[in-house]
Amino acid sequence: MITAVGRLRRRSGERIVEAEGGLLLPGLHDHHLHFFAYAAARASVRCGPPAVAGESELMDALNHAEGSGWLRGVGYHEHVAGDIDRAWLDRHGPARPVRLQHRSGRLWILNSRAMQALGLHAPADGRLFDQDELLRSTPLTGAEIGDASRALARLGITAFTDMTPRNDKNTNASFRGRQAAGDVLQKVTLAGRLADGISLRKFHLHDDHLPAFDAFCDDIAAAHARDMPIAVHAVTELSLVFTLSALERVGTHSGDRIEHASVVPPALLPAIAARGVTIVTQPNFVRERGDAYRQDIAADEHGWLYRGRAFLQHGIPLAAGTDAPFGEADPWAAMQAAVDRRTAAGAELGAGEALSPEAALGLFLGAAQTPARPRKLAAGEPADLCLLDRSWTQAREDLSRVGVRATWIDGQLCQPGVH
Ligand SMILES: [Zn+2]
User: Fold this and answer.
1) Mean pLDDT of the chain
2) How many Å lie between the centroid of ligand 1 and the Cα of residue 259?
3) Angle formed at CA 49 by CA 92 and CA 38, multiple of 5 degrees
């Protein structure tokens, strides 16, 4: 815990860390990510553009990958080497179980060793569609999980909320086990199914198969009856209206959130404010996907995408998460995108939605249950801290350049950049 803040006398045996003018902050909280998928993505070989463009490059990538156990490939696209199959992988890939995921996420291509390891006989070509349940039986190693957690610690992240919809009591048990083993350093809050160990009931809405409205309302009410807030994945105007209508009927529970709220026409801002629901946004998508949005979405709607300022002006509680691995895990790059609203190619997207650097930082400073309320360094708070490599005056010039010198979780130095 933080026990005192101010000009303090050194007590005997106390260690002093010289911050050299760097800003000390409460540790960051990523309010929306998918941790195990992030760890798997870090431990995977990129098998598609831009990293891999042709057949010989794919062979190189697969055969030069480190390790001897399972090899996961991600991002495959037939532009690279056509409709490759088990025979292709056996002939050109390494002598270890290989599973290669298509960019669509729906197709896996397995070699013979992988089929054997999973006890599969069919299909003969090793091409499996929509078999995620089966393929989850190739778990990550402690080292792979530890690598992902340390990468987050290096960014100053001391806690995260995992938003994977299928999270349940087993997921909770695996996180607690990984924390006990020291592989997962961060504090973890889970969204997911209605189950023990899950703090937020997650709903994933898709426009082409929305649930029946009454059933959706009942499910929300059932979560609220267990004193559990809800988190609804809503990336379209339709799913947003659907969610707001349901909340209007059953009422909002404190802590209810809408994930993404990617497209918000002006008329819906007062409706969101009236429901008192928190928005958890991904400003990094302005940078990472903004160029595609500028091509695909009508110009007069660009200002409706991943809004920032309009939410704050309407008094809507706002927090952020990176959605890693579907977005880049770096919260500092996300904050800067919230400030400059620049796409990767440098174009502006919704410049009117820009936040101040202070507001952008605040998106990642909230606690799990109160994501839109920035924590402060104060006596009595948990000693979850990150020390920046620069002052705030320097940091606010370009948040994406901020480096984290040290991260503490419950007072334990877990990213030693200081001596
Ligand atoms: Zn997500």
Assistant:
1) 94
2) 8
3) 90
**Domains in the chain, CATH or no CATH each:** 44-135 (3.10.310.70), 142-416 (3.20.20.140)
CA of 151 to the centre of ligand 1 (A): 19
Angle at which helix 35-42 crosses helix 142-154, to 10 degrees, equals 100
Torsion 394-335-358-293 (CA) sign: positive
Two structure tokens written together for 348: 């502006």
CA 260–ligand 1 middle distance (angstroms):
8
Contact assessment for residue 280 and residue 321, using Cβ atoms and an 8 Å cutoff: yes
Instruction: Please give the Cα distance from 206 to 258 (Å, whole number).
Output: 14
Tell me how far the alpha carbon of residue 323 lies from the centroid of ligand 1, in angstroms: 5
Query: 18 C-alpha vs ligand 1 centroid, how far in Å?
Result: 38
| Mean pLDDT to the nearest integer, 247-255 | 97
Omega prior to 50 cis, within 30 of 0: yes
Q: What is the pLDDT of residue 136?
A: 66
Stated pTM of the model: 0.90
> Does residue 137 register a pLDDT over 80?
no
Q: From ligand 1's centre to the CA of 246, what distance in Å?
A: 21
Rounded to the nearest whole angstrom, what is the distance from the C-alpha of residue 31 to the centroid of ligand 1? 10
Q: What's the CA-to-centroid distance between 206 and ligand 1, angstroms?
A: 13
- Output the CA angle 227-233-239, nearest 5 degrees: 110
Q: Which DSSP string corresponds to 300-313?
A: GGGGGBT--HHHHH
How many A from CA of 164 to the centre of ligand 1?
Answer: 7
- Residue range 215-230, pLDDT digits in tens: 999 999 999 999 999 9
231 C-alpha to ligand 1 centroid (Å): 11
